Amino acid sequence: xxxxxxxxxxxxxxxxxxxxxxxxxxxxxxxxxxxxxxxxxxxxxxxxxxxxxxxxxxxxxxxxxxxxxxxxxxxxxxxxxxxxxxxxxxxxxxxxxxxxxxxxxxxxxxxxxxxxxxxxxxxxxxxxxxxxxxxxxxxxxxxxxxxxxxxxxxxxxxxxxxxxxxxxxxxxxxxxxxxxxxxxxxxxxxxxxxxxxxxxxxxxxxxxxxx
Length: 211
Description:
By secondary structure, the protein is mostly helical. Helix content is 67%, strand content 0%. The protein has helices spanning 3-14, 18-27, 29-36, 43-56, 67-90, 95-101, 116-125, 130-140, 146-153, 157-177, 182-190, 192-198.
């Protein structure tokens, strides 16, 4: 799957080929599933809203932005709208406060990874504000470049580097502060980059209900 293939399908879709549009969205189904996984009790609804948003704006995809990046940008806006709605239905709260709470629904007993280090890393990630979580996931799981992350998060490219630095620093602090053995915390911190990337392959695995 290449960016060029995406562009060809997009152009065919714009020309009226609905099958090309369906094929284009199907190619990124796993990406959307991973993006919304464990962030809502109805992820399929958020995926549907994202796909509908893509249909409505297919003629506005910039030529210099990969389709996957554009699709993730729509997904992020759908997610933020979803969280704002949940915050309004509970109690008034700053969005950053709501973001920090809501993803924590993925409790330590329900995380996906099998390795202890992966579980510890995910526990720490779910304590971060949403925009920092997304920056880390887009970089490590979706393997986006900094300018592509900037497009998804709708921030200046120069801001991504500082946000990533803050996200890594906070994540390391949270790992160090979690209840776990010293050996486990040290192993997770010493191999942080490897564990962060390895989680991607397990993000859609069946839940381990035995914990």
